[in-house]
Amino acid sequence: NFQFKTLKTVPAGLRPSFSTATVSMSSLPRLCRTVLIALAALSAATAAPALSWVSHGDEQHIFVATRMTFDAAQAHCAALGGALASIHSTEENTFIASLLPQSNIKVWIGLRRTAPDTYAFSDGTAVDLDVGAMLGQRMRSGQQCLALDARRAVWVGLRCSRRRSFVCSRVLSSSTSGSDTSVSSTTISEPPTTETTTTTSSTTTTTTTT
After folding, report:
1. pTM exceeds 0.90, yes or no
2. Can you tell me whether residue 23 is helix, strand or coil?
3. Please, which residues have CB within 8 angstroms of residue 39's CB and are 6 or more apart in sequence?
């Protein structure tokens, strides 16, 4: 509750008949909503700083601080032209972990459990690392999506509905790297053009002189 007190400098004749008025928060719904919306917008702006893509091999990676569910994070990465990060070597795993702030302990990567002891990356690439060896702890029932523990550089299982920051990856191309890419030319045979010739008959008179 808010309390509004009268000022001593107000002339006595203009003072209200009470010295203190109490206003309940429930009587200010519009103000409350406005404040909450402003705070939410400020929080989102500070929680999701604009970061740049970082190149590594033939891929680029970007850390997104905004917390989302696994599916929402994958949709966000797709909108950026990529997918949740797929990791194919311990060296790449260490590199991606080095990009993350230590405060964000667990961040989504693109790995999901589709069946017991069966996993798939969001971008469709092969799972060529031993998931059991990469896991820092045993996955529990209901934990179908995997995250990268930035502090220990290991994978952990989480419920896909949990909200986490995440890492997107995309393959380098001419549009992302800015380098020239040779494009082989293809000859396309065009359909034959049919020409219509109009012949105008003319009568020629030949005069023979003997």
Report:
1. no
2. strand
3. none
**By CB neighbour count within 10 A (0-12 exposed, 13-18 middle, 19+ buried), where does 136 fall?**
middle
Work out whether strand 83-84 and strand 164-171 pair parallel, antiparallel, or are unpaired.
Answer: antiparallel
Among 80, 47, 79, 45, CA closest to 62: 80
Amino acid 67: pLDDT: 96
User: What is the C-alpha to C-alpha distance for residues 49 and 170, in angstroms, rounded to an integer?
Assistant: 19
CA distance 85 to 144: 16
For the chain, give the percent of residues with pLDDT over 90: 47
110 three-class SS: strand
Neighbours of 143 (CB within 10 A): 17
Angle at 79 between CA 75 and CA 85, to 5 degrees: 65
The phi and psi torsions of 39 (rounded to 5 degrees) equal -65, -40
Per the listing, tokens 């034959």 go with 192
* First-residue to last-residue Cα distance in the chain: 132
